[in-house]
Amino acid sequence: MFCIIAFIVLSILGIFSASNRQLAREALDCVLRRVTLRPCTTGFDEKMKAKILGYVITRSEAGARFLNRYFEPLSWIFFFLLVGSTFFAVRGVYLYYTTGSCNGLNQGGFCVFDPTGQNTQFSGVDESCPVSSEGNVLNLTLEGVDLGGFPKLAGNPNAKSIVFIGSYGCDYSRKAYPMIRRLAQKYGAELVFLYYPVKEHSDYLAKVGYCAYKQDPQKFWDLNDRLFAADKTRLEDEAFVQELLKASGFNAQSVQFCAKDFQTEWVVKQQLAEVRKTNFYGTPTVFIRNEALVGPKPYRVYAIALEGLLYWLK
Amino acid sequence: MDIAAKIRADFPTLEARDGRKPVIYFDNACQTLRPRQVIETIQRYYQEFPACSGRSMHRMAAEVTREVDQARERVAKFLNAGRKEEIIFTRNTTEGVNLIASTLNWKTGDVILVSDKEHNSNLIPWQMVAKRHGAILRIVRTCEDNTFDMEAFEQALKAGPVRLVAMGYTSNLDGVTIPAAEIIKRAHRQGALVFLDAAQTVPHQRVNVRALDVDFLAFSGHKMLGPSGTGVLYGKYRLLEQLEPFLVGGDTVSTSTYDSCQFLPPPEKFEAGLQDYAGIMGLAAAVQYLQSIGYEAIEKQERMLNEFLSEGLEEIPGVRIIGPSDPRLRGGIISFYVEGIDHHRIALMLDQMANIAVRSGQHCVHSWFNARGVIGSVRASVYVYNTLEEAKLFLDSLIKIRKVL
Ligand SMILES: Cc1ncc(COP(=O)(O)O)c(C=O)c1O
């Protein structure tokens, strides 16, 4: 048993030092012998045990005595710990690759590959993203949500659908949005955009978006791109928004006019209510096929959700 | 100031390195450490005149020839040999034994006497002689405490036509030195030749080959502060002359035709091919270094350490020292085993715990271990640069191991 642990540990250490490589080779020989029910003739296990005891004895005689007495059972325990931790490590790597978090999709907690939790955050540092503390990933749904009135960019025939809930003022939405655009374009997916304002009462941009889309669904996406890329401190400045509208080729005045319309206000309220039906609790929230991804993820995670592990082959 | 304190600075290996304490080197019976003087001599050869000895005419070659000649001279004087041509440079003791075993004109029925605790190097070559030439290998048993049994020897001598007595002068198993002068006298009386394996003697005590009247004697440079893979075979000149050549080829002949050759006289006859000139020079430097320390100082230091270690070991439960109980009879060697604890484990733990280097196993004396039913031992072998502090640490570590295992 000890040989197996030693082999694994020494193989890893062997990457860095030749003497450990030699020991790893001896350990492997020992493992192979043990597997075929022959004794380990190289004396490898004895050698390692003596070395370990020699190390422990200088720190604690009692520890060395204990280790000497229970060496074999301790080896077993270490073996299971090793197997367990290896399983979790492999699982962590897999989950990190596929979901951006070692602990699974939308799960927080420490992840060595993402020590600052970049991939699991969704509330902005400046709290500029709407978040509810009561959110639960499991409640996120598109069922019963009428997506009919929202801006939609058609994809290929039989295209898979991506639904993006985001806010122009939210840093994380701004981070995720271009990736989603790129993704939808690359794989010909259908993209539905659900705007949800940072502060619910300032739904001015929601109205602008609604009116712009109504006026020209094609140009809307250009405007949307500009809104996500623009200096966010100026988004509440109507003059600035007008400039963006113009830049996207809209009749800014007529969009403005529409945005202030009482009817628009009513529709937008309905839409925001519709968005809330998804039970989303943070932006961005992206629905791809059956999955809801909360917070910005690496591009690969969105791509895997859309196209599977082998997305890069397609 | 004791001798160790005086000379330790000469040994680079004994310097602390990378914040680690230096090794406590108790494996001197295997190889000793080397002083700077030896290392620098080797370096001098490679840097200043890395050329052939004897063969070429240029200045560098002349320099090497002179150095090798001087080395031979120095070793000859060191052993008090009659002439420098009696000194053959070899790679080690083993080669010296093999040279004699391969070149004596053996006859069927020749008896070779060896003790029952010979190093394999002084056993296997004779076994081969027995096999190849129909010689008879006779084992002389030692006393119960591993000291030499003169009576048993006398009986063995008288029992048959002994051609050669081949004995380990000082045992690498237990450090016991045999009464060589008396053995040689008795052997010669019976018309036998005597070969002494002095691998563990020359490094530790004065050996005077002429006073001993020994016929052949071999030792290794690496066990006496010299370079690895160097050794010496001494032989009385008239005997060397009679020996057949051993390894043959370049440098062993004065001339050759397509079907014959003219061998050079000893020692050239036995030094085939290009030699380890740096090693030979280093060996001479080691001899010079030993002479500068003096055997009195070496023996005194070893005795002091062995007495201290033996006393300490005897107090540890389960420890059995191999050989006589009087440490003064065991030179610089303390071979012991601890009942119930694997000797290799002890050695590995000492190494890991306190960077103490000892040897464990059967020390190439398998025959003795097999005959006595002892599995193996730990062997601490001290030398002139070892200190009392080191010995204390060794004992402390061993006591800890005993407590834990
Ligand atoms: C007594 C004795 N004889 C012979 C030898 C062999 O020496 P070498 O290996 O230098 O030939 C040794 C080495 O340990 C020894 O101790």
Please provide a brief summary of the model:
Chain A: One of its GO terms (molecular function) is oxidoreductase activity. The complex is a heterodimer of chains A (314) and B (405). By secondary structure, chain A is an alpha+beta fold.
Describe it for me?
The complex is a heterodimer of chains A (314) and B (405). Chain A has 314 residues and is an alpha+beta fold. Chain A contains 12 helices and 5 strands. Chain A has helices spanning 2-14, 18-35, 44-57, 61-69, 71-99, 171-187, 204-215, 217-229, 238-247, 252-259, 262-276, 299-307, and strands at residues 152-153, 161-166, 190-195, 285-288, 291-294. The longest helix of chain A has 29 residues, at 71-99. Chain B has 2 domains: 3-30 and 294-404, Alpha-Beta Complex (Aspartate Aminotransferase, domain 1); 40-291, 3-Layer(aba) Sandwich (Aspartate Aminotransferase, domain 2). In chain B, helix 12 packs across helix 14 (388-404). Chain B has helices at residues 3-7, 36-48, 59-79, 93-103, 124-133, 150-158, 180-189, 209-212, 237-242, 277-293, 295-314, 343-354, 366-372, 388-404; strands at 24-25, 87-90, 111-115, 136-140, 162-168, 193-197, 216-220, 231-235, 253-256, 261-263, 319-321, 333-338, 356-357, 359-361, 377-381. Helix content of chain B is 40%, strand content 16%. By secondary structure, chain B is of the alpha/beta class. The longest helix of chain B is centred in the first third of the chain and has 21 residues, at 59-79. Classes of the chains: A alpha+beta (314), B alpha/beta (405). Chains A and B meet through helix 3 and helix 4 of A and helix 12 and helix 14 of B. The complex binds pyridoxal-5'-phosphate.
